Amino acid sequence: GDSVTQMEGPVTLSEEAFLTINCTYTATGYPSLFWYVQYPGEGLQLLLKATKADDKGSNKGFEATYRKETTSFHLEKGSVQVSDSAVYFCALRSYGGSQGNLIFGKGTKLSVKP
Amino acid sequence: NAGVTQTPKFQVLKTGQSMTLQCAQDMNHEYMSWYRQDPGMGLRLIHYSVGAGITDQGEVPNGYNVSRSTTEDFPLRLLSAAPSQTSVYFCASSLTGSTSGNTIYFGEGSWLTVV
Known about the structure:
The complex is a heterodimer. By secondary structure, chain A is mainly β. Helix content of chain A is 0%, strand content 50%. Chain A is globular and about 45 Å long. The mean pLDDT of chain B is 93. The chains are: A mainly beta, B mainly beta.
């Protein structure tokens, strides 16, 4: 079945450091790919998405490119802030393999220190 | 615009009790679903619905029941609560389930403790 694997956390960075959170996927069909963010005590918010190969999603300084050849959707940010501290989830949605449901990775907790 | 609304936000249950987590959306979305979030497990799908009158099981459906009598509402029922059902529950919705690019929107979560 469809699955998502993302790097284990927690990740601790200093403010203004470069961030990469790796995400790879396995899917039948042609999935769309998502990054969601969860701030402490809150629900999930969509951070960015990409719906086809080579698409780049971007939002709030975060970027991720849908790489079909490597089945990856790594999240990057050039300069993190304390306010970026949160849990980040990579997810895919495929009408074929997952019946239109989101399949999540286990999440990566990011802590940014001033 | 209320989006996806879940109630209650916090609940403590005794083992064996039953309860219903309410979920409502005001975006005329066809697709709705329930997930549970547990430490180190990510989010796992419990049940989902692609339209009124249609429901199906997800990855972890045991101990839960759902119905979809209207487009707006998708309640999750715990039939006989067990400590293993202590979790954070999220309701979610999207325009349809047939287009993978449609964004799924989440409620703020319901924290459930079973003692």
